[in-house]
From TrEMBL:
<dbReference type="InterPro" id="IPR023549">
    <property type="entry name" value="Subtilisin_inhibitor"/>
</dbReference>
<dbReference type="Pfam" id="PF00720">
    <property type="entry name" value="SSI"/>
</dbReference>
<feature type="signal peptide">
    <location>
        <begin position="1"/>
        <end position="24"/>
    </location>
</feature>
<dbReference type="InterPro" id="IPR036819">
    <property type="entry name" value="Subtilisin_inhibitor-like_sf"/>
</dbReference>
<keyword id="KW-0646">Protease inhibitor</keyword>
<keyword id="KW-0722">Serine protease inhibitor</keyword>
<keyword id="KW-1015">Disulfide bond</keyword>
<keyword id="KW-0732">Signal</keyword>
<feature type="domain" description="Subtilisin inhibitor">
    <location>
        <begin position="42"/>
        <end position="124"/>
    </location>
</feature>
<protein>
    <submittedName>
        <fullName>SSI family serine proteinase inhibitor</fullName>
    </submittedName>
</protein>
<keyword id="KW-0964">Secreted</keyword>
<comment type="similarity">
    <text>Belongs to the protease inhibitor I16 (SSI) family.</text>
</comment>
Length: 149
């Protein structure tokens, strides 16, 4: 086994050296590096149960150098998401299970955000079921609508 490995390595090294010697007479043009492509930030935000007609609904948002979609606060939402990205924060991370939260109820409103952000797939749910979730919701505004009572 060891003998085969040594022979294979010697053969590969010899062939690599031979090909370098043979191709050194004709230089190959240098190619520019390929850009790393990641999908644009593209999210769907769906809100229900707020009791505020203009806050409930489903909207698309794209933030890829140009703001797009039908989100009612698209420009501000993209700016907020860019701020999270610059700070290295993930606004879609759930509240840790071991976090102590006040038992303050912010209403039955819920939101789901799906799509792609910073090259990652997003499927996040938001509510206002306790103090931690209320804080998380308000931190994500204006991506999520303001539904304060």
């Amino acid at each position: 086994m060891l003998r085969r490995l040594v022979l294979a390595t010697a053969l590969a090294t010899g062939l690599a050296g031979a090909s370098v010697g043979a191709s050194s007479a004709v230089p190959l043009p240098e190619l520019p590096p390929l850009p790393l492509l990641s999908p644009p930030d593209s999210l769907t935000v769906t809100v229900s149960g707020s009791g505020i007609p203009e806050a409930d609904g489903s909207w698309k948002l794209t933030c890829d150098g140009r703001v797009g979609g039908d989100h009612p606060a698209a420009e501000r939402a993209c700016e907020r998401l860019e701020g999270f990205a610059r700070a290295g924060e993930n606004p879609f991370a759930p509240v840790p299970a071991d976090r102590m939260c006040t038992q303050l109820y912010g209403g039955p409103v819920t939101a789901q955000v799906t799509g792609t952000w910073q090259g990652r797939r997003i499927d996040a749910r938001f509510s206002r079921s306790n103090g931690c979730e209320i804080d998380r919701w308000e931190n994500a505004e204006p991506l999520l609508p303001s539904v304060r009572a």
